[in-house]
Write the C-alpha cells for this entry.
Amino acid sequence: MSVSLIIGGQWGDEGKAKIIDYLARDADYVVRYQGGANAGHTVVVDGKRFAFHLLPSGLLYPKVTCLLGGGMVIDPIALSKEIDGVVAEGIEVKGRILISEQAHLVLPYHVLVDGASEAKLGARSIGTTRKGIAPAYTDKASRRGVRVGDFLRSRSELEQLLTQKIREGNKALRQLGASPLPVGKTVAELLRVKKRLEPMITDTRLTLWSALDKKKDILLEGAQGSLLDIDHGTFPYVTSSNPTVGGAIVGTGLPAHALGRVIGIFKAYCTRVGNGPFPTEDVRKKGDQIRKLGGEYGTTTGRARRCGWFDAVAARTVVRLNGITDVALTKLDVLDTFDDIKVCTSYRCGKKRLEYFPNDVRALERCKPHYEVMPGWKETTNRADRAELPAKAAAYVGFLEELIGCRIDLVSLGPDRNAMIRFSSRRDRGGSGVPLTGDLPG
Ligand code: IMP
C-alpha cells in the first residue's frame, strides 16, 4: 500500500514517533496533518534523542521529504527555531521540508491567549500545552485566521495584515487581563521568519497527488491521540483538531480510498496529560511506578503524565473509529518488573456493562473499570538478541489483541530505534474490530 496512516490510539504520547521512524526508512514522504507544536515526537538513534514538535519525524532519513499539511496550525517562530535545531545536528533540510499554504498560523498572541485563558479557568482548565492551539483553530473556524499562504503576499500587504491581527490579538489579551504584545517588534519578527520559510511554502496537495500517481510511499503522521479528538474524544477535555482518520483526509487533501494501512499505536498501559476523565488511572503506588519506569513526563511541557492500566474499552472503540488494520504496541518493557498487570476489559456504569467508550464525559466519569489480572513475566523484554517475547508477555499481548479485535504487529521494547520485534503469533486475526455486544451507553 502506498499510503499508511499512523494514529495515536490513546490520549497521545503513545510512542508514535518511534514507529514512524521505523516505518519511515521505506517512505518517500512523511506528512503531518493536524495539530501543531503541542506535539512532542521523540526518536532515539544510537542513544541520541531527537524531539520533533512541528517537523515530521521522518526528517532523520535523507531520502524522505517532509510535509506539514493543511490541517496543521503552525507557529512560524517555533518552526524556524526547530529547523535551526535540526540543521545544527547536521541534518540537511534543503528541499526536504514543504509547508502547506492552507495551514493556519499560530501567531504570538495565540500562545499568550491560550495561557491567559487557561489561567482564568483555574481548576476548570483543560490543561492545554499553552502552544496557542485552540486560539489558532478558533480563528480558523471563525474565518479570521491567517494562513501560511498569506506569507506569500507582498511585504507591505503582509505587514498591514499582521499589524491588524496583532492589534486584534492585543485587544483579546487585554480582555483577559494579560499584557499586550509590542506591535512593531512582533511584526518584524514574523517578517523575519517568513523570509526563512517562504521557499518551503507550496500547495502540498499537488505534491501528494503527484506522489500518488508515481506510487511513492507516503506515511501520514498523526499527532496527539484519538481520545483527544475534538469530535470523538473526551470533550471538552480534548485538543482542537481531529487526530482520527478523518483529520488525515481533510488535513492532507488525499482521497479516502488512497488509505491503505491504518496503524494504531497503543502503549502497553495508559497515560494522560492534562485534565479530563481517565477511568483506568492508578493514583497510587503502581501508577507512580509506571511513571518512573516509563519516564512519563511530557516532551513538550515536562508535565508529569497521569498513569494507569491498559483500557481495552477505549482501545476497541478507537480500533472501530479509525478502521485500524494493525497495531503497534509500545513500551511493553516498562511492565517487566510488575508481579501482576491489570487490564480493563469492560466498564460498569450503574447497572450496565459497557464494552465501548461512552461519548459523554459525565457518563464516562460514572464508569468503573472492570479488570482482569494477568501474571507479570518478571523478565527483561528489552534484550538485543530478543527475537520472541517471554511466554507470559506474549500471553499479555495476545490477550490485548483478542480484547481490541485487531492484530498487534509490532511490539516496541525500549526507546532505541532497534528495540522492536514483530509479533506474529496471531497473524490470522484481522482488523475488523470487536462486534458490538453488551449494553449501549446512554
Ligand atoms: P492543546 O492541544 O494544547 O490545546 O491541549 C488540549 C489537551 O490535549 C490537553 O489535555 C493536553 O495535555 C493534550 N495534548 C495536546 N497535545 C498533546 C500531545 O502531543 N500529547 C499528549 N497530550 C496532548
Remarks:
- The domain at 268-442 is CATH 3.90.170.10 (Adenylosuccinate Synthetase; Chain A, domain 3).
